[in-house]
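Entry 14. Structure prediction run on the chain below.
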Amino acid sequence: MPQLSATLARVVTTRYGVVTTEQLLVDGFTQHSIRRMVTQEVLIRVHKGVYRHAVATDSFEARCVAACLADSRAVVTGPAAARLWGFRHVFRPLQPVVLVEHDRTPLTRGVELRRTNVLEADDWSVRPDGIRVASPARAWFDCARDLNDERFEMLTEWVLDHHASVPTLWRMRRRMSSRGRPGLARVNRVLSQRQVWQRPAGSGLELRALQGLERRGVVGLVRQFPVRLANGIVIHPDAALPEVRWALEIDHVTWHGGRLDAQRDKGRDRGLRRVGWQVDRVTDVELDARFDETIDEIVDLIAMRTRSFVA
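Output returned:
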């Protein structure tokens, strides 16, 4: 029985044992030899013209690769994309959730099909293993139909913390705002609870605070500086002075009165202290009501930290 060339074998290995008829023909196989390998169960048919080598595991990733090879315009989205991105608070599907345009009738089995009339180039990317996966923002939106409000709220927190900005999520919501779109009502409910600060116009609060500190003579501030905690998680405080291990977080108390933020932030603060950082917090309400006084207080805290750190 013919063997895969070294070149094709490397490609198939990176794609979890999945191969297409076209790849096999280019590699020198014939239609007859391919049929024989299927009959002898050396190859297992997954989709039309797409096979998985029998020695390869029937993994979730292999199913995603097979779906993308079967339809060159299919995109893995929703909970399936969430699994690929490592999102928290989303169930782990066993089969790909695949997004296709309305005018196509591609895959007929082994996937959950979802149709859309909005699929732009920025909505997806191709991984090194060949899987076309929805962007974090698009995957987030497409998960809204699968979760209840509480879960989707927690997912939103996770995505904002690890993958996207508030303006990015709002831009995605506006693009997907046609009436009757699955999940849109839940997206609206969850995002609307952020009231003023969640909108792009309000996203400059951190920048305004940093500019205020710089006018008071504070130099070296870094936005979203990555700090690795003892458990391996990397967090990004709103502002930091890395040389003295000081961080500033600006809390937006309009989000459910701080219910979920407070739970998460206390853990983040403990994690920062465990690796030798001091974190100070102010709220958007404080900055709105008494901006200059609040900035002066932060400057004093920075000076105290600097003296104690040097000493």
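The radius of gyration is 25 Å.
Filed with the rest of this week's runs.
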